[in-house]
Write a structure and sequence with these properties.
Elongation Factor Tu (Ef-tu), domain 3; 2 domains; alpha/beta; about 40% helix; five-stranded mixed sheet; Protein-Tyrosine Phosphatase, Chain A; 12 strands; single chain
């Protein structure tokens, strides 16, 4: 082979090698950008089976949280959910908690759930609203990556179930007397559950409510069947609760959080009617003493004439107890705006300025609409209001 031919072959080989390097680098760069990122409208799951979840109202989509997250979707993304009967939810957030406002839909990966769930937060049962049967299926596509990432970041908060992580039994149990100026001191306490020990707080609540000489408990989260199950559990250690329950001084109303529904109002009316017929001190609780308890305590505070500021301060003490979130923390305002404000607006009625309105009149109207009599409302106020 002559010298000229060797130079030509060497040049061709060098060009091939250089092209290969560029191609490899380009592929590597493309693959390294975000290997798990999905493009908009990417199908995440298709024609997946569904299950009705009736307790809080929603639709389980039969894909575990781990399986769904492995597809590259992130908490705070927006997604589209389309059911085989044609019903669609477009651009809804995917969260790991119930972070939407009252009545808004979401796709949720709540810790402990077997599957992801589509639901209307504090609203009607999506399964019924969408006209679904369990023969229908669901398809989920990505709508927009990171659209709700700011809310996800602010609301993705967790607490410890270890007593040693807290400064006091009261903080751990989220136990306190409602401290607004319009209510008698020590008349109404609020807390985590004294009977459901899933968060290891029940025995602490039990001792604290015994010390407070609680005479009546409004249990917002359970029915009698659940209570009997708790009491039969090996770790049940709430003798004072058991004493009150066996004496008929516990009213369980198994309240959900659909506070815009008539059923929600009627259950609250039944609970507060029972409360009015017993002497205090009273304890109001759900599981954590946060949302359902927060609504009922807000209602009692408003009924006695508390200001918006007092209601906000008492509600947010729970977030201080559990998460250390205080005024000035950016998460504080997100929680107030997305959780507490919709509660008060639901109680006050459409179009009411909750920061200037007569919240006492709003609360009384709410209870009258719920089925309480004016006489029973007056009796309840006399039991708990400051003189």
């Amino acid at each position: 082979m002559n010298f000229k031919m060797k130079r030509v072959l060497s040049l061709i080989l060098a060009l091939c090698l250089l092209a290969g390097v560029f191609t490899f680098a380009a592929c590597k760069k493309k693959g390294e950008e975000k290997p798990d990122e999905k493009t908009e409208s990417a199908v995440l799951i298709e024609n997946c089976g569904i299950i009705h979840e009736p307790e809080f109202g929603g639709v389980y989509i039969k894909k575990t949280i781990e399986e769904f997250d492995s597809l590259g979707v992130k908490y705070g993304d927006s997604v589209n959910v389309e059911f085989s009967n044609g019903y669609k939810l477009e651009g809804i957030p995917y969260y790991n908690g119930y972070y939407t406002k009252n009545g808004e839909p979401l796709l949720i990966a709540y810790p402990g759930y077997d599957y992801i769930k589509a639901a209307i937060n504090n609203g009607d049962d999506l399964f019924t609203v969408a006209g679904l049967t369990e023969n229908d299926t669901a398809t989920v596509t990505l709508a927009e990556a990171g659209k709700f990432a700011d809310i996800q970041k602010a609301r993705d908060i967790h607490y410890e179930d270890d007593r040693e992580k807290y400064e006091s039994d009261e903080q751990f149990a989220n136990f306190r007397s409602i401290a607004v100026s319009t209510m008698k001191e020590g008349a109404v306490y609020r807390s985590a559950s004294p009977c459901d020990n899933q968060h290891c707080r029940a025995p602490y609540v039990d001792k604290l409510m015994m010390k407070a000489e609680t005479e009546f408990i409004l249990n917002l989260s359970d029915n009698e069947e659940k209570i009997e199950k708790y009491m039969a559990a090996e770790d049940f250690d709430s003798p004072y609760f058991e004493e009150l329950y066996l004496s008929g001084s516990v009213k369980p109303i198994a309240l959900n959080m659909n506070y815009s529904s008539q059923e929600f109002k009627e259950k609250i009316a039944s609970g507060l009617t029972a409360m009015a017929e017993h002497e205090g001190p009273y304890l109001v609780h759900c599981t954590e003493g946060k949302d359902r308890t927060g609504f009922v305590c807000m209602l009692l505070e408003a009924l006695t004439g508390a200001s918006y500021e007092e209601i906000e301060n008492d509600y947010m003490l729970t977030y201080d107890n559990y998460y250390g979130i205080k005024a000035g923390d950016e998460r504080y305002d997100v929680i107030v705006g997305n959780v507490l404000v919709p509660m008060i607006e639901s109680m006050a009625g459409e179009g009411v300025d909750i920061k200037t309105a007569d919240l006492s009149a709003c609360a009384e109207r709410f209870l009258l609409d719920a089925g309480m009599s004016a006489e029973t409302i007056a009796k309840l106020k006399a039991n708990i209001a400051a003189q």
